[in-house]
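Notes for week 9. Today we move from apo structures to complexes. The key idea is that a small molecule is not decoration. When we ask for a structure prediction with magnesium ion present, the ligand SMILES becomes part of the input, just like the chain. The input block below holds both the sequence and the ligand string. Read it once before you look at the output, and try to guess where the molecule might sit.
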Amino acid sequence: MTVKGIIFDFGFTLFYFDNPSVERYYECFKKGLLKSIDILKEKRVWSEELSNESFVKKFAKSRQHFFRKSIKTKTEFPTSLIFQNVLESLREEHIINNIDNIDLNTYDKLADIYHSCEEDEWEPFENTRETLEILTKKNVKVALISNHPNHQTIENMLKKHDLAKFFEFILTSAKYGKRKPDPNIFLYTLEQMGLKDHANSVIMCGDEYADIIGAKRANIQSILLERKYKFPFEKEINVSNLRKINNILEILDIIE
Ligand SMILES: [Mg+2]
């Protein structure tokens, strides 16, 4: 088949997070959250009544709430919105009062800082660069769709490893508002790639249910990149003749 475009997922497709565990994620995000508290203190959006620990707890609770809601509704609630929600509820409880010192740019900055430690943890797979290089040389258009609550974090990680240049289009659920497997996020990406009328010449490559089922709903073919380990509560992918690879470079054999 002539492949005109490939859409990649980010996490565990192009990049990996070494030894992922709930504890490591928690530790990583707590580090980022404590750094964001410094900004709040700088902006004088803080109170002596409020301890770092109680802020961390409140944030975790709100994040959990929005995470569940986002899975249920396939809507993405960006991290900047969680900061806004937490600060508004602290104002309602009369714990802090001057949250107007925080404008929309600062909410984005708080979200960037919260996710900043992630940027040191995710690394591209050994063959990611080579695969992207070859695809680009073959004039295959490359795009990325990631379910992530902070768009800038994904852009930063691609730039950090000098990989952003390979992508025709980079989209996150934070930017689009909906999460994979919503078919519209795929259809919108096709349109941005200029391949709206060539969906059958586009392949989605990802490591989980949301990638494969979302692509199917948008009438895009897919390839599953099999992860070395399973995640807890992972949804089973019931697709007949599902193509599977173990290494990103193998995608080149499929499109030949
Ligand atoms: Mg993934």
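The chain is about 50% helix and 15% strand.
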